[in-house]
Design goal:
By secondary structure, this protein is α+β, with helices and mostly antiparallel strands. It is 40% helix and 22% strand. The chain has 3 helices and 4 strands; from the N terminus they run αβββαβα. It has helices at residues 10-19, 53-70, 92-105; strands at residues 22-24, 28-34, 41-46, 77-83. Strands 1-2-4-3 form a 4-stranded mixed β-sheet, sandwiched between helices. β1 and β2 (28-34) form a beta hairpin. It is globular, with a radius of gyration of 13 Å. 15% of the residues are buried.
Length: 106
């Protein structure tokens, strides 16, 4: 995931979350909207309920690798990915399959 493909500003997060367009499964909640940039932008949210800083950074690294393998960056869409606290229970492969199915729905 390149730097230009990240959502950084708080106001942009707030706008996307307030639209209330989302898909949900047991591990992820993905908020989305269309944008005018011509490429996909992504924001990751991992709360403190998922563990200490080391585990949260591990989750973010895993998410970035999942994103690079599944998402087409040529679509003009904004995504915010929220991770539930049950993410740590499963193995990476199970989490990846769950992520692929929810992305396919969007």
């Amino acid at each position: 995931m390149k730097k230009k493909n990240t959502i950084k500003k708080y106001l942009e997060y707030k706008e996307i979350l307030n639209l209330r367009k989302f898909k949900r499964n047991a591990l992820f909640i993905i908020y989305f909207r269309t944008n005018n940039y011509g490429f996909t932008r992504i924001g990751l949210l991992v709360s403190k309920k998922n563990g200490n800083a080391v585990t949260r950074n591990k989750i973010k690294r895993q998410l970035r690798s999942m994103i690079d393998q599944t998402i087409d960056y040529k679509r003009n869409i904004d995504l915010i990915i929220l991770v539930s606290k049950s993410y740590n229970i499963n193995k990476f492969e199970e989490n990846f399959n769950s992520f692929k199915t929810i992305i396919r729905d969007i």
